[in-house]
Design brief:
single chain, 0% strand, mainly alpha, 55 residues
């Protein structure tokens, strides 16, 4: 079974340069779901993903 971090990572990789609002919202949910169970290293990567979404 794929963990939440991997789901968030795959979702971020699948986004285009200009994701739709739905894509961004789905990625945001995946990041939030993954954060609670993430390791320190994964949390840093999730924060990086979040910054990319915010740009």
């Amino acid at each position: 079974m794929e963990n939440f971090f991997e789901k968030a990572k795959h979702k971020m990789q699948s986004l285009t340069n200009k994701p739709s609002k739905d894509d961004s919202a789905t990625a945001q949910e995946a990041i939030q779901s993954a954060y609670n169970d993430a390791t320190a290293e994964e949390k840093q990567k999730l924060q990086d993903f979040q910054q990319k979404l915010d740009q």
